[in-house]
């Protein structure tokens, strides 16, 4: 099990207060955006375009941290750091980790939606 | 463009990720009498900003069209120097932050943005902008109620200084405590030196932000667990000129004093200091006083590479520097003010742990 929480909802609850539907909608939107950026990241990796890998990983890190997707943010942060350091070392295994972390996040988001409905 | 309500104070938010904007809009809604105007396109946001007034701009750095820094440059180049701009960036991007400050950024936040810190910072920056507008309005009616106007001007200066002092605190709590101590020490020394009540009021406010330039100092230098060497020292010394870039747009007597103090408090009486190697009376008087207060606070506080020295050793070192580092008459006032300085030291101790 990862040490970093998959979905940390407390910050969003502080911001959205009792608007749990608003939180769920935001999480769904974030999952949609995340899937697009995740595909762009994978595509940049296939092209061996390190700069695009860095940009996509940075975007995933920021947007997932913004909604409390801390595990995804942590893995994306590692990919970004490697790309920023101009190395491919560790990026491929981290991409596999990212896929798994995203899957866990999607499950957690679905569980949150079910919990509030 | 998304606009969340129809109130008068608009906060322009620019981020290419829609979900980030959704969260920002919610947080902005917590600031009374404001509405968020959100753009995922930085070029569209720039276009909007040309024809609309806003009280605050929040801009992400990494965007596909104009980057945050390019956006800030474009806003400032079009003559908008009054709207505060907060750039969203990583804590580690200090070089980027330095560049952004030079181009007109007012403050920085990192993702994920803490809502409490954001609301607090935003309210202060909006108040600061309001204070500047008030000051301009007063300038147009300079002959009316001068005494009342002076009181309000002082209040506006305090608002501005409070906002910058909070920035220092958010950036580095250890620097925040140091700045508070230095301001109180400087006031006590200034009193013994014979400054008027008016001068003491200016000094005690302006000295609170003497290290404002440190907000752009790289973390690896600000938090280094050892003495600075070589190039690191040169980078650290930039905090005095960075402060000028931040403060020079303000023109009240208190803010002018703040610029002088921030710029010249590392000059030495014998002309061997920095950044301008000024000597003797060429160093502004407030900066000469703060130099002694700053050194006393620094010597008697822990540093990553050494323990705090005792008060008696600090006094001895400062007295040895009379005529070299410091003006002899100010060192005399420092000695005379020692009972007050010890009281202040007890009230504002060096509590923050070294390093992060």
What labels describe this entry?
heterodimer, A: 117 residues, mainly alpha, Four Helix Bundle (Hemerythrin (Met), subunit A), elongated, B: 356 residues, alpha/beta, Rossmann fold, Hypothetical protein af1432, 2 domains, six-stranded mixed sheet, 6 strands, 7% strand, disordered C terminus
Based on the structure, what is the oligomeric state of the protein chains? heterodimer
Structural class of chain A: mainly alpha
- Whole-number tally of structural domains of chain B: 2
Unreliable segments of 5+ consecutive residues of chain A: none
Which segments of chain B are poorly predicted (pLDDT under 50) over 5 or more consecutive residues?
Answer: 352-356
The name of the CATH superfamily of chain A reads HPT domain
Q: What does this 3D model show about the protein?
A:
The complex is a heterodimer of chains A (117) and B (356). Chain A is 79% helix and 0% strand. Chain A has 117 residues and is an all-alpha fold. Chain A has a single domain, classed as Four Helix Bundle (Hemerythrin (Met), subunit A) (Up-down Bundle), CATH 1.20.120.160. Chain A is elongated and about 45 Å long. The model of chain A has no long low-confidence stretch (mean pLDDT 92). Chain B has 356 residues and is an alpha/beta fold. Chain B has two domains: 2-124, Rossmann fold (3-Layer(aba) Sandwich); 173-347, Hypothetical protein af1432. Helix content of chain B is 56%, strand content 7%. In chain B, helix 4 links the parallel strand 5 (85-88) and strand 6 (107-109). The longest helix of chain B has 26 residues, at 115-140. Chain A binds chain B through residues 11-12, 14-16, 22, 26, 29-30, 33, 55, 58-59, 62-63, 65-68, and chain B through 16-20, 22-23, 26-27, 30, 60, 62, 111-116.
């Amino acid at each position: 099990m990862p040490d970093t929480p998959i979905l940390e909802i407390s910050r969003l609850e502080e911001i959205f207060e009792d608007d749990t539907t608003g939180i769920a909608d935001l999480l769904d939107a974030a999952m949609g955006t995340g899937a697009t950026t995740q595909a762009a990241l994978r595509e940049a990796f296939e092209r061996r375009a390190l700069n695009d890998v860095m940009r996509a990983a940075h975007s995933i890190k920021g947007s997932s941290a913004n909604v409390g997707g801390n595990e995804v943010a942590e893995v994306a942060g590692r990919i970004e750091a490697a790309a920023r350091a101009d190395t491919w070392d560790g990026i491929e295994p981290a991409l596999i980790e990212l896929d798994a972390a995203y899957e866990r996040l999607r499950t957690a988001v679905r569980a949150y939606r079910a919990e509030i409905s | 463009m998304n606009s969340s309500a129809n109130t008068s104070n608009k906060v322009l938010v620019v981020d290419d990720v829609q979900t980030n904007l959704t969260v920002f809009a919610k947080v902005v809604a917590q600031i009374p009498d404001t509405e968020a105007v959100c753009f995922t396109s930085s070029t569209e946001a720039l276009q909007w900003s040309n024809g609309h007034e806003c009280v605050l701009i929040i801009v992400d750095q990494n965007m596909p069209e104009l980057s945050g820094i390019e956006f800030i440059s474009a806003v400032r180049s079009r003559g908008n120097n009054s709207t505060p701009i907060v750039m969203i960036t990583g804590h580690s991007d200090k070089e980027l932050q330095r560049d952004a400050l030079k181009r007109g950024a007012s403050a920085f936040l990192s993702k994920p943005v803490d809502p409490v810190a954001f609301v607090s910072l935003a309210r202060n920056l909006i108040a600061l902008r309001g204070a500047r507008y008030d000051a301009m309005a007063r300038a147009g009616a300079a002959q009316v109620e001068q005494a009342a106007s002076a009181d309000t001007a002082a209040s506006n200066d305090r608002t501005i200084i409070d906002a910058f002092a909070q920035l220092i605190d958010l950036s580095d709590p250890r620097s925040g405590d140091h700045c508070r101590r230095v301001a109180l020490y400087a006031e006590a020394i200034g009193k013994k030196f014979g400054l008027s009540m008016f001068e003491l009021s200016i000094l005690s406010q302006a000295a609170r932000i003497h290290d404002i330039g440190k907000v752009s100092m790289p973390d690896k230098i600000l938090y280094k667990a050892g003495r600075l060497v070589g190039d690191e020292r040169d980078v650290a010394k930039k905090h005095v000129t960075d402060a000028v870039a931040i403060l020079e747009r303000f023109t009240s007597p208190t803010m002018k004093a703040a610029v002088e103090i921030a710029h010249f408090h590392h000059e030495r009486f014998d002309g061997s200091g920095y950044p301008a190697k000024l000597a003797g009376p060429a160093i502004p008087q407030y900066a000469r006083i703060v130099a002694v207060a700053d050194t006393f606070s620094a010597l008697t506080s822990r540093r990553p590479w050494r323990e705090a020295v005792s008060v008696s050793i600090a006094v001895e070192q400062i007295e040895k520097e009379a005529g070299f580092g410091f003006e002899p008459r100010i060192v005399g006032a420092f000695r005379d003010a020692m009972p007050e300085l010890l009281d202040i030291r007890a009230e504002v101790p060096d509590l923050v742990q070294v390093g992060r």
